[in-house]
Specification:
The chain has seven helices and no strands. The chain is mostly helical. It has one domain: Up-down Bundle (Methane Monooxygenase Hydroxylase, Chain G, domain 1). Helix 1 (2-36) packs antiparallel against helix 2, helix 1 (2-36) packs antiparallel against helix 5 and helix 5 packs antiparallel against helix 6 (145-175). The mean pLDDT is 92. It is found in: Cytoplasm. This is Phosphate-specific transport system accessory protein PhoU. Pfam families: PhoU (PF01895).
């Protein structure tokens, strides 16, 4: 039986990594669509969301089957539980990517001021959450908790950009009240990116839980 469960765990890991690649692609496309206001690219993201949802259900079912058929314990059980939670976080990231893309389609009159994008560090925020996803996948592939820990500092930077953006946009609206609608939608996009960073942080915690049996949820990351 040990030989069978090892194969099942290996297949599960491959599935989660494939899901990770799919969601990263969604994030990359959604980011490009946002910066260029490319509606065709945004529609691609929305169309591919169905594939993400189907994949999430498949991985959930596989995790349940492994637990039900093999009753894993210790590190094997931690692995399955971690994959189950990572799968959920990946699906939520994809949801935010879809939300960013719908913004591009639903508000064709919006043309975000390049100066405002620079001041809010939106491009840096996007690049950072993409790097967080890359590092998370690397940490899982290499089974390295040290790589996973590095994600926490990046999340701190994402949080900092989010906090600063609110004040920057508020001052911008005072100077240019006619752009208030655009600015409020931009704040919504920045919040979505901040939540993506949170989900990357959660996935890093799950990798550390699986590898080191350490529960970091609700704790301060240092």
């Amino acid at each position: 039986m040990m030989r069978y469960i090892e194969k099942e765990l290996e297949n599960l890991k491959d599935e989660v990594l494939e899901m990770w690649t799919l969601v990263y692609s969604q994030l990359n496309r959604a980011g490009e669509a946002l910066l260029s206001l490319d509606k065709d690219l945004a529609r691609e993201v929305i169309y591919r969301e169905k594939r993400v949802n189907a994949f999430e259900l498949k991985i959930d079912s596989d995790c349940e089957d492994i637990i039900g058929l093999y009753t894993p314990v210790a590190v094997d059980l931690r692995f399955v539980l971690a994959m189950l939670k990572i799968n959920t976080n990946l699906e939520r990231i994809a949801d935010f990517c879809e939300g960013m893309s719908r913004f591009v389609i639903d508000y064709p009159q919006i043309s975000v001021d390049a100066e405002l994008l620079d001041k809010t560090n939106l491009r840096e925020m996007l690049d950072t959450i993409k790097k967080m996803m890359e590092k998370g996948k690397e940490a899982l592939t290499e089974e390295s908790s040290s790589i996973a820990v590095g994600i926490f500092d990046m999340d701190n930077r994402v949080d900092e950009i989010n906090r600063q953006a609110t004040h920057i946009v508020a001052r911008y609206i005072q100077d240019k009240p006619d752009r208030a609608d655009e600015c409020l939608h931009l704040i919504g996009i920045i919040r979505k990116m901040e939540r993506i960073g949170d989900h990357c942080n959660n996935m890093a915690e799950e990798i550390i839980f699986y590898l080191d049996a350490k529960v970091l949820k609700h704790s301060t990351k240092k």
